[in-house]
Specification:
There is one protein chain. The protein has about 500 residues and is α+β, with helices and mostly antiparallel strands. It has three domains: about 50 residues; about 260 residues, no CATH class; about 70 residues, Pdz3 Domain. Helices cover about 60% and strands about 15% of the residues. Strands 5, 6, 7, 8, 9 and 10 form a six-stranded antiparallel β-sheet that branches. A four-stranded antiparallel β-sheet has the order 1-2-3-4. α1 runs antiparallel to α2 and α10 runs antiparallel to α12. The chain is globular.
Length: about 500
């Protein structure tokens, strides 16, 4: 009884500490480290108090409940589950799946998979990027998105022909790579491209530093390409926990169903906790029997998790648009798509410093209505030094003198009023709208991200085991194994994508 009371006390104290750390106004990296340290300490303490199985600070709570239900699902439609796993394999690895299938090539699965893959690439993925920026608080992401949008707009307008050519070539490469290697290859190339831009930014900064005029803005423009995802830290807490729970149940449940379809026994199932926070789920098949079974069965069991996540993402893609049009039908508006000019920075040596603040929207500048960057430039150009500049924003009106160069030190960007902005405004009176938006959006993007990343050839991801079954011990150069070279390249790219955390 004493142990149970001590455990309950520890859980309560950890929950309180977690709550206050989440609300603390500290650096994002320090906050993440502090939260993880608190939860890991809680895990180790609970492991000793309650004799719970644990690994690396994670608690594994095993059970046999639910295994009968998985058996029933597997036995109900075995051919359907195999077909869906084969389609998922094609979506994951594209036409390369022809090499992964060992004994036969299911033509229906190949055709269905390629059609779904292209629909996924053309329609589903384009929605994921802006939702990631909106719902996952990744430092530097909004700035990177605005830069990318500006570049695309410039190319589309016919300016910067070289840039337009580069963007067209990259788009063609990604399309071709998706057909050949599925979302796994396309995702890996995107990871490599982001790593290249980060390394280029580091090299550019080093060049300016060596020249004696280090430009820190070069590094500031590059946000991290990878980050830990924790509810309460960079995800809305309740919606994040629910979306992760759905993702994990679908992912692990699919592994279990395909294992039973392949006659592989399941030892147990359960939940993984990081302290008091649900962190994962698992289904534990008999690994020895799995490794000895037919290679096609192994492929299906291994790919089932990612396949289920991709299918779930497609379902939530449809649900998101139903929510989108449902909100607009119930609450019509003409605001969406309208643009405004927002302050992104105020120079410390500018006359507006201390008055105008980043995040304010400028509505008028010296009596001129401002709705675009062009309006702002037209109103600001030609201002003589010392002239009185009246700036009307959504947070108040400010009058400051122009500096020696006729400027006041305000840097701006053009932003469009989006559906997410409208949801936030509606949620001031109806919080449930924001809750649904967050949950549906997170369920969509987290299934997309996990479905793709889990197919990367990195231990212990499923993609590594799938490719290992095919490549085995094949040698690339001398004594270097093909799998070792691929793993090293992807892991190095992941590390580079984390580097911006050092300067954000």
């Amino acid at each position: 009884m004493k142990r149970e009371f001590a455990a309950l006390t520890l859980i309560a104290l950890t929950a309180v500490g977690f709550y206050f750390l989440v609300l603390a106004g500290m650096n994002a990296i320090l906050k993440t480290i502090a939260v993880v340290a608190l939860l890991v300490a809680c895990s180790f303490s609970l492991q000793r108090l309650l004799k719970i199985e644990g690994e690396y600070g994670l608690l594994l709570v095993r059970t046999k409940k639910g295994l009968k239900f998985i058996d029933e699902l597997a036995q109900s439609r075995p051919h359907l589950w195999n077909f869906l796993a084969d389609v998922g394999l094609v979506m994951g690895f594209g036409l390369s799946a022809l090499l992964i299938f060992r004994h036969r090539t299911p033509k229906k699965a190949i055709i269905t998979g390629i059609i779904l893959l292209m629909l996924f690439y053309q329609f589903v993925l384009p929605l994921a990027a802006p939702l990631v920026i909106e719902l996952i608080q990744l430092p530097g992401s909004s700035q990177s998105m605005s830069i990318s949008s500006s570049a695309a707009a410039q190319a589309a307008s016919g300016q910067g022909g070289l840039l337009a050519t580069v963007l067209a070539v990259l788009a063609a490469i990604l399309s071709l790579s998706t057909i050949i290697g599925g979302v796994a290859l396309a995702g890996a190339l995107a990871l490599l491209l982001k790593a290249f831009t980060i390394l280029f930014a580091i090299a550019s900064f080093a060049t300016t530093a060596i020249a004696g005029h280090a430009d820190s803005q070069i590094l500031a423009s590059e946000g991290p390409g990878a980050a830990p995802v924790l509810p309460g830290i960079n995800l809305p807490f309740v919606e994040g926990v629910l979306a992760l729970a759905l993702l994990l149940v679908v992912h692990e449940g699919a592994h279990g169903i395909l294992a039973r379809v392949g006659k592989i026994p399941l030892k147990s199932a359960g939940m993984v906790f990081l302290g008091v926070v649900p962190f994962g789920a698992f289904v534990d098949p008999d690994e020895r029997k799995l490794q000895k079974t037919d290679a096609d069965i192994q492929d299906r069991v291994l790919v089932a998790g990612s396949a289920s996540n991709l299918f779930t993402a497609c379902a939530f893609f449809v649900i998101f648009f139903m929510f989108y049009y449902g909100v607009l039908f119930a609450f019509p508006t003409a605001q969406i798509g309208t643009s405004s000019v927002e302050v992104v920075a105020v120079l410390s040596n500018g006359t507006a410093y201390g008055f105008v603040q980043p995040g304010m929207k400028i509505t008028k500048w010296r009596g001129t209505d401002i709705a675009s960057i062009a309006d702002f430039k037209a109103a600001a150009n030609g201002t003589v030094p010392g002239a009185s500049v009246e700036i009307i924003t959504d947070k108040g009106t400010f009058t400051v003198p122009a500096g020696k160069d006729g400027k006041v030190g305000v840097q701006v960007q053009q932003v469009a009023y989006s559906f997410s902005n409208y949801v936030r405004d509606l949620s001031k009176a109806m919080p449930w709208i924001s809750f649904l938006y967050n949950f549906i959006g997170l369920a969509f993007i987290l299934n997309v991200l996990v479905g793709i990343v889990n197919l990367f050839p990195i231990p212990p991801f499923d993609g590594y085991r799938i490719l290992s079954l095919k490549l085995g011990n094949k040698i690339l150069f001398g004594k270097v194994k093909v799998m070792d070279a691929i793993v090293a390249l992807i892991v190095a790219s992941f590390v580079v994508n984390l580097l911006p955390w050092l300067w954000i």
